[in-house]
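Methods — Computational structure assignment.
A single polypeptide chain was analysed. Its primary sequence is given first, followed by the predicted tertiary structure written as structure tokens.
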Amino acid sequence: MPLGRAILKATTSTSTPRARLSLISRHLDQRPILEINTPFSTERLSADNDDTEYTSTTPISRSFSKSAKMSSQPDHPALLIPGPIEFDDAVLQSMSHYSESHVGASFVSTFGETLSMLRKLFQTSDPSSQPFVISGSGTLGWDMVAANLAERGDDVLVLHTGYFADSFADCFETYGAKPTQLKAPIGDRPQLPEVEKALKEKKYKILTVTHVDTSTGVLSEIKALSELVHRVSPETLVVVDGVCSVGSEEICFDDWGIDVVLTASQKAIGCPAGLCIMMCSGRAIESFRNRKTPPGSYFASFKNWLPIMQNYEAKKPSYFATPSPQLIHALHTTLTQILSVPLSSRFAAHRSASHRIKSTITSLGLTQLASKPENQANGMTAIYLPNDIKPPEILPNLLKKGVIFAGGLHKEIAGKYIRLGHMGVSVTDPKRDDVDRALEALKTSLGEVGYTPKQA
């Protein structure tokens, strides 16, 4: 008997199994699941008791307007969270590459080209700089920094602009380093005089800054900060968490004197999740080589990965741990696309889209977490909800209109705001209308929950 028919037959009973089987029907129900996108949300998606009968309601239509279908991908709501983002067809097609040896000549060539293209994306021509591409999320980048560049007892200054500074500090503590967080009010960033004062009070091995904090949409100014560190504390390594910035914000690795930028594949770079990407300066590599103690991690150790990355870039097969050939092919494709136009044009497109989005938000009478223009990221926007509206009240309405926003992530205010990601192909592909649909959906959805938007 087919499973669906068996469930219908079983649920005609009034016994306890009926309630139990109703749980199964939840998994068969075709309604999209609302993703709150925050570990701090306490709201449940349903008030139903887990052991009571579930009554299906009319499902949300899975068919979206033709304007939403800008590619050969199946119809789906536009994913406009601050990562993962929408991906180009060619990138996704690269993921279906046939299986091949990770030490075969063809793959080694592709991986080597990928590493070389990263140098162009990060704008470094210094031969002592070293790119890394390792299977893992952007979080692995924290481990690689803490395990290789900090030793037990080292002081680290963590500039705090949101949730991810807390996590980076936790990572340093795991490896025995001593992080000090310099915190700004929510929506702001530590000011340069405050940073200078902190650097003069103590010798720090590392200073970290989140270029764009995904929880708040706050953009940090890297060039002036790096200049300050080199002037006041020249031995301190400058480490940039660029998970939510690389590909949408300019980074001049050499010119700005940065020592490490860590990022991930699934945001503005435009490749499916699963790759940790880093660029390290020659100074950072030298700092690693001068360690007094071995790295605190085996998988994340530069000792193991440095020769592998150097060999791959030189088109020589090498092995420490198996990479993902399909993800490397996808990264190769998206980097080829990114570098096919001047980086300045790419960053200008992100700035233009961001300005239009933020102007519309202001015209609707809404405010951003990052209230100062100089603090506002170009690849995402964090929006306070008006009139005590909660994310679970508006996110389903947005989903019905074919766009997915993210809920709040900052633990102190998670229930007060939503986040809109606008990076990658949603911004750079002129055939896509993701941003237009997102803004129109936001206006309409606010009205549906009792807020009367001002006319744009």
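Note: Residues 343-363 form the longest helix (21 residues).
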